[in-house]
Amino acid sequence: MKKARGYCRFRACFAILYGMDFQEISIEEIDSENETFRISEEIRSAPMEMSIRRIGQLNPLLLLGGKRPYRVVCGFRRLDAMRRLGLSRVSARIVEEENRDLCDVFCLALRDNISHRQLDALEKARALHKLRNEFGVPDEAILRDWQPLMGLAPHGQVLQSHLMLHASDQGLRNHFKAGRLTLSSLECIAAMPPASQKFIAAFFEGVRLSAGLQKKFFVVLQDLAAISASGPENPLEDPEALAIANDAAASPFQRGEKIFAFLYCKRYPALTRAEERFRERSKSLGLPGSIRITPAPYFETNDLKVEFSASDAGRFREMARRLFEASQTPELDSLFGVIQKL
Amino acid sequence: MIPYAPERILVQEESWQDSVTLEILERLPGVEVRTVKSREVRFPEPSQGSPAPWEDKNTLFLLRHPGSFLKRCQGSGADTCCNYYVLSCTWNCHLDCSYCVLQSYLGGRALVVGTNFQDLMREVREKLGSSPHRIFRIGTGELADSLALDPATGFSRRLVPFFARLSNGFLELKTKSDCVANLEGLDHGGHTVVSWSVNSKRICRTEEEKAPTLEERLAAALQCQKWGYRLGFHFDPLIYYDGWEDDYREAVGEIFRSINPERVAWLSLGALRFPPHLIGHVKKRFPESKIPYGEFVPGHHGKMRYFRPIREAMYRKMISWIREAAPGLTVYLCMESFAVWEGSFRIQYPGPSFTPDRLDAAIIKG
What we know:
- The structure holds 2 protein chains of 2 kinds.
- Chain A is α/β, with parallel strands linked by helices.
- Chain A is built from 16 helices and 7 strands.
- In chain A, the strands form 2 sheets. In chain A, strands 1-5-3-4-2 form a 5-stranded mixed sheet, sandwiched between helices.
- In chain A, strand 6 and strand 7 form a beta hairpin.
- In chain A, helix 8 packs across helix 10 and helix 12 packs antiparallel against helix 13.
- The relative contact order of chain A is 0.07.
- The N terminus of chain A is likely disordered.
- By secondary structure, chain B is α/β, with parallel strands linked by helices.
- Chain B has one domain: pyruvate-formate lyase- activating enzyme (Alpha-Beta Horseshoe).
- In chain B, strands 4-5-8-9-10-11-12-16 form an 8-stranded mixed sheet, sandwiched between helices. Chain B has a 5-stranded mixed sheet with strand order 2-1-3-7-6. Chain B has a 3-stranded antiparallel sheet with strand order 13-15-14.
- In chain B, strand 11, helix 9 and strand 12 form a beta-alpha-beta unit.
- At the A-B interface, helix 11 and helix 14 of A face helix 11 and helix 12 of B.
């Protein structure tokens, strides 16, 4: 029967380590393809490689013995570095597999990782997935014992969102690792169907959005999808959106901003139409750019605000003169007409 | 309508001394009853999450409300405020309308009934006595449905005769329910208006699933009219969707086909408005609802509202259909600005006291 309590797991981990000796073994005896106990998202580590090249292997690998080849419990990155450096023998401690609960062995690996570094979101997701789905740890024990250890709130919703993260499209994970998607964006997309995830991952190959804009972007995208009762990728399949995404003359960030503006316009058609009409009419007043005319926020009232600054009396008179001239034109009535008859 | 049937009743120990408690327990036989200490029945703060019993709509709390029962309506900051007062003796609602602000407003989903009714009546008497020449329109339908719990609480049988004896107090019972049986035979003295929150049949069906249909609400209203009560109607919230015109026009027609407009004190219009965080609740709890996808912008008091031209267009059309069906009826907008009022009624708003004066006049008319 699987043990549920973290305390028991801790004792089991201690029992595994107790009495193990260091051994030096051939690197060929280790199965580096087996990822049963892997937690690290990135195996290749340049600093690790440099360290081992300079001062050698300081910490032994932890390997699972029994049948050969050995499986790695702790030390995936060390092993990768040593293979790259062409080392033939490594120092290791061997956990004998016989009578071992593999869940205890994984918990040992997880504790080892948590003890000396901060896991990123994908690593936490991988660890939670393995605890729950590969080693059968009950949700209750994960929430109580493991999520707080990883710095996560002990809520079922947090567990679910991490399980979705783990199952998310590889392209999206790559965007996240490269800093092109924020964690909250990744969480949002991870909840979408796989086909939508794949489409969005491909779409973001040529498009960038600032972190602040990403949040708004995905809210608008999902709203539009809900309005049209279609998949979340549907609004991005619009020919106009695709044309913006493929505009070679624009930078990835410019494309991102243009696509957001395109989607925003579809989500808020009446508001964007009113803003456009207001901009056109206020331009027709012919005022200099230093005089700003703005409507009330979201046109909630009929008021107009006029702003300018002047550093001397002459400049002030000039601004006032331009405003007076504008006030005599029918374009001003037309501008108020836009607000009053939105 | 699905009647409220709690699975458990938690009674604050002091509430056992109140007759309200015993009456409610008599009306809800067979429900598990537990006595709880005072510190266990504090309203949780919405931001702190809710302890288990508060999160459960099947829990009914009976407690002594320690604060004020009577408050100015939260719309009092709006330009066209109607100077309404809110009297809260029950909190929360089991009807579970998708757009309802109560699902995120009170910090819990349990239903709560205040048992210290004597305190409530004393507070009302004192407030009204302090301004004897002013008319007070007071409603119980702000933080709960006025009548949905009435079969259990019987509050209407206490409130209606109480207001009948107050020269300057008028009670509005605002409901979506058809629980009007307790109103029969009461001495209301013309001081109680029974109002229905109404909507298009489609919205009643899709967004107010647990509430009675429009026909059932109107049947209850007609019954109250026969018992001599004046009625009110509130198209609130008005919800914009493809085809809203036909549906709302039909609803207006249906009301005045059965109800005598001469006996209707007022009708209000209020386009959907809500605090921004409500959107998340609606999307999560009612994934089929299309309400979150309207063209909302931040408006008065930070609430989200339909973009102004959408609201004005809805109000204008509603006003024209109401005028056709009931030309002399007092119609007003709830929580709106002068600009929207003027854009909807197509006349200049006469002044801040315009709406309250009209409503006072409408109620005094009797």
